[in-house]
Amino acid sequence: MAHFCKIGKGSKVLTVEVVHNNIATTEQVGIDFLNNLYGTNDVWKQTFTDGTRKNYAGVGYKYDQTRDAFIPPKPYISWILNETLVFGKHQLLYLTQKIDIIGMKQIKLGI
After folding, report:
1. What is the pTM for the complete model shown?
2. 31 and 4 in contact (C-beta within 8 Å)?
3. Strands 2-7 and 62-64
């Protein structure tokens, strides 16, 4: 099965739809199928579970065209995106920043 995300304002994922592989033989064919099905001309991007486009997208994720990646929502405003730390395959994760007051050195902790 192929999974497609409808992209809205601010590049936010609004919904994720499933299309059978017999129909969605390519990404563009799947996009055309969904637009014909709904009678729209919406922006769709395929999302994958294998690390393609970094993360499997869900509602609330953002599609970053420059990275060709789905970015998860920030759990907290102070968290920063880390593109080098990888758990699994090609995931983009957020890190917290904690300041050690005594040593005045910055420590990044993966959460």
Report:
1. 0.74
2. yes
3. unpaired
